[in-house]
Amino acid sequence: MRRALIAAIASMALALPAAAQQVGGRMTLQAYAGIFRDNYTQVVVNPFTSARGTQVQYHDGGTSAQMLGTLRAQKADPQIDVTIMDVTTAAIACAEGLVERIDASVLPVIGELDQMARDSGGACGPAVTYDHLVMIYDTRSVTPAPTRWEAMWDPAQRGRVALSAPPNIQGLALTAILAHAASGNWRNVGAAMPRLRELAPNVQTFDPNPDGYTLILNDQVRFATGWNARAQLYRDQSQGRIGVVLPEEGTAFQVNTINLVAGSKNRQQALAFMAHALSAEAQKAFTERMYYGPTNPRAQVSAEAMGRTALAPEFRNRVIPLDWNEMVRLRDNWNQRWRREVIAASGR
Amino acid sequence: MSAWLLMLPAVLLMAAGFLYPVALLARISLNRTNDMGAMEPAHSLETLGRLVEDEFTWELAWNTATLAASSALMATALALPVALLIRGAAPRWRGLLSLMAVAPLLVSGTARIVGWMAILGDRGLINAVLAGLGLAEEPLRLINNWTGVRIGLVESLMPYACLVLIAGLGRLDARLEEAAATLGATRFRTFLRVTLPLAAPALLAAFLLTFVLGVSAFVTPRLMGGGRVFVVATEIFDLALETVDWPAAAAMAMLLLGALAAAMLLRGLLGRRAA
Question: Which of A159, B53, B185, B267 could disulfide-link to B189, CB 3.0 to 4.6 Å?
Answer without folding.
Answer: B185
